[in-house]
TrEMBL record, chain A:
Domain MIP18 family-like: 11-74
Pfam families: FeS_assembly_P (PF01883)
SUPFAM superfamilies named in the record: Fe-S cluster assembly (FSCA) domain-like
PANTHER family from the UniProt entry: FE-S PROTEIN MATURATION AUXILIARY FACTOR YITW
Protein name: Metal-sulfur cluster biosynthetic enzyme
Automatic annotation (TrEMBL), chain B:
Protein name from the UniProt record: Cytochrome C and Quinol oxidase polypeptide I
Domain of life: Bacteria
Entry keyword set: Membrane, Transmembrane, Transmembrane helix
UniProt source species: Pontibacter ummariensis
Leader peptide range in chain numbering: none
Keyword tRNA-binding: no
Bilayer-crossing regions: 12-35, 55-77, 86-108, 114-136, 148-172, 192-211, 223-241, 247-265, 285-305, 311-333, 375-394, 400-419
Amino acid sequence: METQTPDIGREVFATLKYIIDPEIGVNIVDLGLVYKVSLEGDQLNVELTLTTPGCPMSNTIIMASEQILHKRFPSLDVKVELVWSPVWTPDMISEEGLRQLEKN
Amino acid sequence: MSTATLSNSPGKWVVLPHYAFAALAFVALSMLLLFSTDAFGGHYFHPKLLTLTHVAVLGWGTMVIFGALYQLLPVVLEGRLYSERLALLTFGLLGAGTILLAFSFWYFQVGGLMHAAACLLFTSFLLFNVNVIQTARKAPKWTIEADFIVSSAIWLLVTGLVGLLMALNFTIPFLPEEHVHYLQLHAHVGMVGWFLLLIIGVGAKLIPMFLLAHPKESRKLHWAYNLINGGLVLFIFDHLFFNSGLLLLYVSLIGGGTALFLLYLDDARSARQRQSTDLGMKQTFVALGLLALPLALLFLITSRLELPQALLSSVYLVYGVSVFLGFISALILGQTFKTLPFIVWMHAYENHVGRFKTPLPKDLYSEQLLRWQNVFYLLGLALLLTGVLLKAQVLILSGAIGFTLASLLYTANVFQLLLHKAQNLQPFTYGNANA
C-alpha cells in the first residue's frame, strides 16, 4: 500500500473503506486491494487489484471506487486503474481485515 | 472518470433461468420419488428409475451446472463467454429435451418421442461444447482448471452420443451387445467424465477462492487429471472390446485421482485465511465427504466379492443414489448459495455500490430456510439410502418426503433470490464528506 500524497491519501483510504467486497464481507482497503494513491494536479489516481484474476467483481469494484471518490472529491478527476502486479495474496490482509474475517 | 476494465460476466438472462429450471426440476424429482418407492426392489433398468436418474442428471445437475458455468467460465478462463445466444439456445434445448425424455421414460415410449428428446439433448451438448471450446481458445492463460472443464464438456458430448445411440437402438436394434452393457458405459462416462471432472475443475478454482487460500502448486491437480482421464479411457476400451476383468485397476486410477483433488483442497483448507465457514461451504464439505460413499461402493462392486445377487442389486442402486442424490445434489445445494446470491447481487447493485448503502449477497436469502433445507436433505438421503439397501418401502417413502421438503425450501430460497430487486436504498453519510 503506497501513497505519494500523505494528506489526501489518508482521506482516500478512509473513503475506500466504504467499499466492501460482497463475497468476503471485508472492505477493499483492509483486504489489501488498494495498492497506490497519487495526485497529479487535479487528477487523483488509484491503483487497485482483485483477489483473483477474472474476478466478476472487477467492474463493480472499480465503478464503486470511482463513484465514491468522485462524490468525496468532486473537484478532482478520479482515475481508478486495475493492476495485477504484484499478485494479491492473503498475506496482504491487514490485522483489522483479519479481525473482520473472523466475525463474518 | 475512467471506466477501466469491463467485467466479463454475461447478462443475467443467460444465467438465471438455469437456476429457476433446476430448482423446479429438483421439486419434480422429489415428487416423482414419492411415487417411485416400488421401483427400488429390483434391477436398475426400470422406467421409473431411468426417469428419476435423467431428471436428476439433466434437469437438476446439468442445468444448474450450465448456468453456473456461464458465470464461472469467464472467472476461470479470464475472458468473456464466446456466445450468450448459444448459451440461451443450449438452455432451451436442454430444458425441452429433459422434459420429453422424462415423459418418454416414465411411460416407456421408446419411439419417436425418445429419439426427438435424445436429438435435442445431443444438440444442446454439441452447442455447449462449441461455446466452451471457443471461450477457452481465447483464454489468455491456460490452466489445469481449463483442462478439466474443456475435457468434461467433451465427455458430456460422448455421454450424449452414447445415449442417442441407445435411444435409437430401442427401436432399430443395431448395437452388438445388450442394452445394459451400454447403459453402464453411458452412466460412467457421464458420472466420471462429465460431473467429476467438471466439479474438480470448477471446485479447484472456487473453493480456495472462497476460503481465501492461494495454493501455490498444482501438481496434485495435474496428476488427478491424468489418473481420472486415464482410468476412464482404459475402462471404455476394456468395456467395449476386451472385458478383461481389470475393472479394479481403472477404479483405483479414478479413485486415486479423486483423492489427490481432495488432498489439494485440504492444502487449501490448511492455508486459508478465512476461518469461519458459512452454511453454503459447510454443505459443500458435506458433499465432498459424501463422495467417499460411491467410491467405496465402486470398489466393493468391482472387487468380485461373492455377494448374494439380491444384495448386489441393492448395492448397485445405493451406488447410483449416492452419486446423483448424494454427492452431486449435496454439492449443488451448497454451491447454489455461494454463487447465486453473488450473481443476483451483482446485477441488482452493481450501479449502486459506492453511492448507496447496499446489502451483502448473504442478506438476499433466508439462512433459516437454508439451514432447514440442509437438515431435511441429509435426513432424506440417510433414510433413502437405508431404505434402498434394505428394500424397505416405508424408509424410501420417508426419504422421499425429506427430499420433497428440502426441494421446496431450496426452491423458495432460490426464487426469493431470483425475484430480488434493489429498493429503498439509503445514500452514504460517511465521515465528513459532503454526501
